[in-house]
Amino acid sequence: GDVYKRQVLYKVLKDHPSIKQISFNGFRSDLRKPFINIRKKAGGLFFSVNLIPSLDLDSFPIKTLIQSKKSDITRSWLLDSVLEDKYFEIALETLHFVLQQCLGARRAIVMLKIWLYVRDLSVGKGSWNGFLMSMLVTHLYRIGRFSNASPPHHIFRSTLVYLTSGSILSEGIKMSPFTVDERRYSQNIAALHRTVESSSSVAPIDPSDSIVFLDPCRILNFARRVSVQAFSELIHDAKFLLKYLQ
User: Fold this and answer.
1) What CA–CA distances, in Å, run from 8 to 12, 36, 56, 82?
2) What's the pTM value of the predicted model, to 2 decimals?
3) CA distances from 25 to 38, 191, 227 (A)
4) What is the pLDDT of residues 119-157, one digit of tens each?
5) Are 209 and 170 in contact (CB under 8 A)?
6) What is the reported pLDDT for 124?
7) What sign does the CA torsion over 215, 220, 226, 231 have?
8) How far, in Å, CA of 4 to CA of 2, rounded?
9) Of 82, 186, 204, 219, which is least packed with CB atoms within 10 Å of its CB?
């Protein structure tokens, strides 16, 4: 069904006057998870838009996925791929909640993404991409590394300092559980929180994962596709940038 929908969408978009180019790519270089990349013209400028499919939150019950992962860790990659698709909307709603509270975070994230792009750090297999950087800023806000009134440059620098501290490689990241305000903000977040809470368990971490960045419900490792080599290059560049900023 999803393949058919993508074909129909492609046919609708390819003849649109504002669309310059359409191509299919693999999500995080994974060709088993295709998405549509659109090069669009607006106001004399061209920019790219990625259309990434996301599973409905009601498909593949979370409890079943967690229990399947616990019973057979060798199937972790497949189960995490499903969780990954289901979690897009939840992750974005968590990010949007933070951006509404902290106006400086939006500009800081844009600055961090530009840095990743200019340094060519967010492309290729195993890289730390813009989505992960956005979720890292979200995590730092939730643990109080900066406040609602923090300016973008402070958030930018705080994120670089955290990246270079070495704690992600040694300890990983475990995001704190969803707050009451976050659950009130989003029905999807509230529903996921209730589901995971009632299951009285969390999904195990695949021992083959090099970098650990667990979501607030501890069921998905956001950084499961990130390699130590790519992350080490990111840290090296971040340290150089911090020296320059000082």
Assistant:
1) 6, 12, 19, 23
2) 0.80
3) 11, 32, 20
4) 999 877 789 999 999 999 999 999 999 999 999 999 999
5) no
6) 77
7) positive
8) 5
9) 204
